[in-house]
Task: inverse folding
């Protein structure tokens, strides 16, 4: 089956390089419903690739701690012995006790050092928790999201986008369409969520889209086996400061290989560690696979099983033939789809980061496997950003800045097309407002990647949960089209017409159905299929065998045994043929975006607080760009008068007509409170009506104001919101307005 | 349960007024995936309200036909008798035969007249079929839509939007957001499709969202009972020209009341008419209800049943409390949602008009039931368009033009808010490109409307299938919020604060729990609840009874019996209270848009053909406005040279940068063929590169061309596409370019 993004790296707590980011003063972060996305098989809560550097530091502290403990123990023994020894002087005992005290203090210091390292350093973990809580509170209070069906107690893993969240999601998707679909002239399609079983059998999801589950043997409650094991190991590591370095290494190893453990191995570990059900402490069943697709039935008769799609990509693959034709039978081309996807998570955690329904935006770029160059690669080749190639991960290094063109030319990134999309994804995310220092492209390790994949890179964004994979960019070779070709019998292939016919020599295998029928009866078909499926090397070997010995043993997998083939049963010969075209299954490069996760990280990266000018309260601000902001402008009459209200309403109407989303706040609250309110949902501009002829425009982050004609205000904000002018431009064009402090926060 | 849009009116075939539209020369029509929508319970294929006028005409023809038949029969008898009579003259026999011939010719004419009336007149039915086929072929060939999972044989009722359809859908949704959400500052939300059972129990869908189904008793194949009965009646009516007027009236009546038939009545009719399974002719089971929701299970344990939502509205209702708070606890306000909805149709028909998954856009406008005025009603009150009030339907009249303001002031439309949305929907649809003469607002008849609804109007658009309901606009009173209040125990109410407290006299019922406990033990709670639930009238009656007789009999429903209450058990008194606010459940006005159906009708209304200028071939054109068109511009080098290609690519890049979707066609095909290709997908503008310095811009419908600087071309097209300039404007500003015929089609 497709491995989606089977490995994550919530490596933040131990990776020194990234930790530093958390120590900055008013840092940036957030939490939204669909950051949730939940789209990734393994996702965020699986283990990170082993970080030798960080691991090493921790191990050193653990070793020092064990040594200190040993010293404390031996000195305590010495004190006990001294006290019990007859005739020893008080002074000697006191000295021994004093030494013990010093050793204990030293032990305490090392223990704290370890605890601190485990928590991500200094104010790290606590700081992150607090920061996240502030962001989440703001998001819930201002209805960026809300737990779904709250009045009925909610359903784990389901969240609603509220008005602000919904507006941001629409903006992100519009920009996605502009940046990818429009820019590359991609063929966007829109397929149903309800999917018949056969499609997902072909893709492998019916068989393998599973997580291992254990059941509480008494209550029947379900848990993810790997979660329980991981939680156990993490808790031991975090709380068990007395853990021996060997034990700690073992637990860490378990976390590192969690993804690769079979049901048997997971079960054995759970038994070995005596892990029980979290709340009840009841014994647990053996782990068994649970399919994560929501199942349903199509039509009334009940004999057409279906599923809610776990990804949007399959809708594109099954349409390949039509899309290729639509594109004039030319490669390369890309198809794209935005839509809902579904995963019936066993026990959703991490709030908005792992949900049961989420919006995916996927691109399938089809390309000739023999030519993965990209015509527009030069447009991104100069970009330089954080990349984390697999070698660096395996040797314990950190992500480092690499020039994209170099990464491709040196073979770090497999090919130009893959590189092009990595560059485009970088531009997309940073233009949205993701902090480029907290964005890295991490290459999949060999054990993360499906056998057929040529290369995979995840765009990971750092947030308070660690590094979260938000976009996966994979070269999936020809796997998907081949799988559907095989299952459907429809050839999902492309052709390259030769300028002139080419003469090629081909090995032609012709089974003699008559002879094979006589010899193998009902098994004939299987033998024929096996013969036709031989590689050229196998066929050549058989040819040699038949010619020298007259018969060969031939292994037929579908029969589970070998059969004896005689020369009369199959003819193998080299033939020259004129070929006019080459037929091949295209490779597919797939950038797949977890829209909710991106939005979640955007929230965190956009959030900051600043002290109010009037009192000491901290005010929350989302520093969204106009591209992303849920509303582009707030219109506020300075004080409540009919005349000001009229002007405000007229400006609001002008804005609406110009397609600029806006809110009008005519409540009687103080202007400072109203600014705080609009800053808190990230509205970049505010028009304050303080006269009937001219008004001020305020920019959220700088809090600078300019004065413009009331009739002109909407147009100026439109220019700003559409990006035609910058704030600096308009500052230069219009007089600055200075408010008395009381007017502002 | 909510009746969605339970009744349709595919009245086209018999309604004279509408029929005429089909007789126009190059008429307009189409067929898309999601016109499909399928969102309407009864939808398009249920019966129309009886059209007395049309019915009468048909009955008259049937009577005339029966008379002619009788005359033919009697004359034939006369001829037979004459021939057999001995001694009759040849001349006499010939005269009788001649008379018979004349009668037969007359009979034939009347029969044709009837057939023609049944087919919707003249070239009606056939013309519609042909027209639809042309449109559908174009749509499929140019990949506006495609049956989903085609390589696996497809699934009935599931369609994909291909690249052109998807682009149009995105444009329609963007405009919907601009026209409704932005304009009214609606609170847009985005809730999951997966919905727990309790929500849909409260809404009534679990119990009542069903269609009646019959099974082929031998094969188990499922059919909609009403479909079979309706098909039977229609076929008899259409083919049975010898049908007696009485029988015809009966069949027509069955079709008219189809919606109101119970399972028993439907079953009886099926038996009476001897209806069997369509293909196999096997006997059928009795009809039984089949729930149309796709069922699934949430979470791994299997004890949390869920469904794929059948509408998006419930997500808004369950969020009412938060949304009301978000809106500053003020009414009125509207929430909106765009999203997928699902209906597991028994046997989807009518192609794209009835599908199993579709996009809904719904608005829930919450309003004080005591004040349904609308502040912006004056903005739409002057609009005049086709309305079809229930009285006119019942008296056999046709839809007529009514001024909206008058319809509201005269009470035809229940209230201003409902009227406001009718007006806004009219503007939305006509601005998209729906022909205003083929759009009508039809009021629901009493039997179509749920008991709680105050008034309902459907925006129906005429297409080749008849009049299709595409938007439902209903005043659903307080039903939905009350249902969720009851089920969840969370009070979904609003408050109106009084400017100053009001003194009100209230009847206060205070049960004495002690006395009741002694008397009724475990039943006490039920008695108390029944006492508290009494209406004021009931309480007053009890008060009187207790005061006169000292005790009363009191029916407690939950106990299923009456109990005897003594005076000591309950005190009932009038008390004066100061009230600071009024608490009430808001009414909801719900405009609900079947996006796919609207797009389908838009296709039909936009399509036309015109003869090629070079040969006699008919060329297909979709006359989409720039607002809707899948691409705004095509860029074509007149002939294939490197220099022209370079200019074309530069212009295409300029357009993309300006956010104008475009295609570049550098194939070697003739310019005429390439124009035909871009016209066929409805691209409004084409830039033809015929020099490296200046280029031409061609408008699709007029085929006029202007000449502009190559560097300016993208900007001019942007102006046109954004609606800042009309074609007439730019025609005036730039020189006209006249092409030699060979250049154009």
Result:
């Amino acid at each position: 089956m497709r491995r989606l993004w089977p490995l994550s790296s919530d490596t933040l707590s131990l990776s020194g390089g990234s930790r530093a980011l958390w120590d900055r003063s008013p840092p940036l972060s957030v939490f939204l419903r669909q950051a949730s996305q939940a789209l990734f098989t393994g996702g965020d809560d699986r283990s990170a690739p082993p970080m030798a550097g960080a691991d090493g530091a921790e191990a050193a502290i653990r070793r020092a701690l064990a040594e200190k403990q040993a010293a404390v123990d031996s000195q305590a023994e010495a004190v006990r012995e001294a006290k019990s020894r007859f005739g020893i002087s008080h002074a000697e005992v006191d000295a021994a006790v004093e030494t013990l005290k010093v050793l204990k203090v030293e032990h305490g210091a090392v223990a704290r050092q370890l605890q601190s390292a485990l928590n991500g350093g200094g104010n790290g973990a606590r700081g992150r928790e607090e920061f996240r809580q502030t962001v989440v509170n703001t998001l819930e209070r201002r209805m960026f999201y809300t737990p779904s069906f709250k009045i009925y107690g909610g359903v784990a893993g389901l969240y609603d986008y509220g008005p602000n969240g919904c507006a941001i999601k629409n903006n992100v998707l519009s920009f996605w369409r502009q940046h990818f679909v429009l820019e590359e002239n991609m063929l966007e399609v829109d397929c149903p969520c309800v999917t018949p079983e056969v499609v997902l059998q072909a893709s492998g999801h019916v068989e393998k889209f599973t997580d291992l589950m254990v059941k509480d043997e008494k209550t029947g409650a379900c848990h993810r086996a790997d979660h329980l094991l991981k939680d156990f190991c993490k808790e031991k590591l975090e709380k068990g400061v007395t853990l021996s370095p060997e034990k700690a290494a073992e637990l860490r190893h378990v976390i590192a290989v969690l993804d690769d453990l079979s049901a048997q191995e997971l079960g054995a570990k759970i038994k070995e560690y005596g892990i029980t059900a979290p709340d009840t402490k009841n014994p647990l069943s053996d782990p068994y696979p649970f399919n994560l697709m929501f199942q349903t039935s199509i039509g009334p008769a009940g004999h057409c099983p279906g599923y809610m799609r776990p990804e949007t990509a399959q809708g594109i693959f099954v349409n390949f033939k039509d899309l290729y034709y639509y594109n004039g039978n030319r490669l390369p081309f890309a198809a794209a789809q935005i839509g809902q996807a579904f995963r019936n998570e066993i026990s959703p955690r991490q709030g908005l980061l792992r949900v049961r329904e989420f919006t995916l935006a996927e691109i399938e770029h089809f390309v000739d496997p023999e030519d993965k160059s990209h015509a527009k690669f030069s447009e991104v080749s100069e970009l330089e950003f954080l990349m984390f190639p697999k070698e660096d991960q395996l040797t314990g290094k950190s992500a480092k800045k690499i020039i994209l063109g170099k990464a491709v030319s040196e073979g770090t990134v497999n090919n130009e097309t893959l590189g092009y999309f990595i560059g485009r994804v970088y531009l997309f995310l940073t233009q949205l407002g993701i902090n480029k220092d907290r964005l890295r492209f991490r290459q999949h390790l060999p054990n993360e990647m499906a056998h057929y994949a040529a290369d995979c890179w995840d765009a990971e964004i750092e947030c308070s949960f660690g590094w979260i994979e938000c976009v996966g960019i994979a070269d999936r070779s020809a796997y998907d089209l081949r799988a559907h070709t095989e299952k459907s019998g429809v050839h999902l292939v492309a052709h390259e017409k030769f300028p002139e016919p080419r003469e090629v020599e081909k090995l032609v295998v012709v089974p003699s159905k008559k002879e094979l029928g006589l010899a193998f009866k009902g098994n004939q078909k299987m033998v024929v299929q096996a013969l036709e499926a031989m590689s050229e090397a196998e066929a050549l070997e058989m040819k040699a065998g038949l010619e020298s010995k007259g018969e060969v043993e031939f292994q037929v997998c579908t029969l589970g045994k070998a059969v004896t083939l005689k020369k009369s049963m199959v003819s193998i010969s080299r033939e020259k043929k004129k070929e006019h075209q080459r037929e091949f299954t295209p490779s597919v490069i797939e950038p797949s975006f977890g829209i909710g996760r991106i939005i979640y990280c955007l929230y965190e990266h956009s959030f900051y607080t600043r002290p109010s000018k009037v009192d000491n309260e901290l005010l929350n601000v989302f520093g969204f760009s106009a591209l992303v902001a849920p509303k582009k402008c707030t219109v506020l009459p300075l004080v409540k008068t009919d005349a000001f209200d009229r002007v405000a309403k007229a400006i609001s109407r002008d804005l609406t007509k110009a397609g600029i989303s806006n809110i009008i706040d005519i409540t009687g609250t103080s202007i400072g409170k109203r600014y705080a309110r609009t800053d808190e949902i990230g509205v970049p501009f505010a028009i304050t009506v303080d006269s009937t002829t001219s008004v001020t425009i305020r920019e959220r982050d700088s809090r600078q104001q300019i004065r413009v004609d009331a009739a002109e205000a909407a147009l100026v904000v439109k220019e700003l919101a559409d990006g035609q002018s910058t704030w600096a431009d308009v500052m230069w064009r219009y007089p600055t307005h200075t408010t008395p402090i009381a007017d502002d926060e």
Notes: Confidence is low (pLDDT under 50) at residues 1-54, 741-745 of chain B. The longest strand of chain B covers residues 494-511. Chain B has five domains: 1-49+124-206+307-493+585-611, 52-123, 210-291, 503-583, 613-743.
